[in-house]
Write a structure and sequence with these properties.
Layout: H1 2-10, H2 17-39, H3 43-58, H4 90-113, H5 115-119, E1 123-127, E2 131-137, H6 138-141, H7 151-164, E3 171-176, H8 190-207, E4 215-219, H9 232-238, E5 240-246, E6 256-257
Parallel strand pairs: 3-4
Antiparallel strand pairs: 1-2, 1-6, 2-5, 3-5
Helix pairs in contact: 4-7
Amino acid sequence: MSRRRHSADEHENHERWLVSYADFITLLFAFFVVMYAISQVNEGKYRVLSDTLSTAFRNVPGSASGAMAVVNPNAPMPIAIPIRKAQPNVKMDETRRKNREKLRTMAKEVSEALAQLVKAGQVRVTEGALGVTIDINANVLFASGDARLGPDAVRALLAVAKILAPENFPITVEGHTDNTPIDTPQFPSNWELSGVRASSVVRLFIDAGVDPRRLTATGYADQRPIADNSTAEGKARNRRVAITIESKAPDNAVDVPIPE
């Protein structure tokens, strides 16, 4: 009997503690993995999930903050208020449509009144996002380095003024030059020349019956070219007066030539 007990003692495993230690290390590793994963979860989504699970297990309604809400079974059902869809502003759309029609009619009338100049390429009438623009080459209106309107220019502008006067659209008159410097006692730079040229056109419009409150004169010198100033043709195009009949409700229109 003592011999058998001695044999069992010899085969007893003294390293069984390693199994428990390994299990503890594994659990500790899993714990830190879970903690790291929780730290990466979106807080808002985690809170919503937590509240949902809490509500589901308790079988009572819950709030976003985790607090339970008491439901009165005898309380009346809430009345659903229908949401009205935003209705299009029919009146505004109709006003815009009428404005566009008026502007196009005015553009055609201007093109007809200046038909010879349009055909010769001296006048260009376009419809754009701001309204209708009438580009007139400066050599049609002024002598070189001068801001006084010639007789032919007066006749042409009076025809335009006759079309503009009955309406109430705002009008902006812009003076533009090429990049050739000017230095005279009257015009020390192209800024003065372009500004006075625009003012000359505005004064003629006022004398022709256009409401002064509708008019604005602006000089841009050579800062807004529409052609290359390195050629004579480009310089001639840049020397111009631009008359813009502004729409009261501009649309995102693309500049297109008005048919003659």
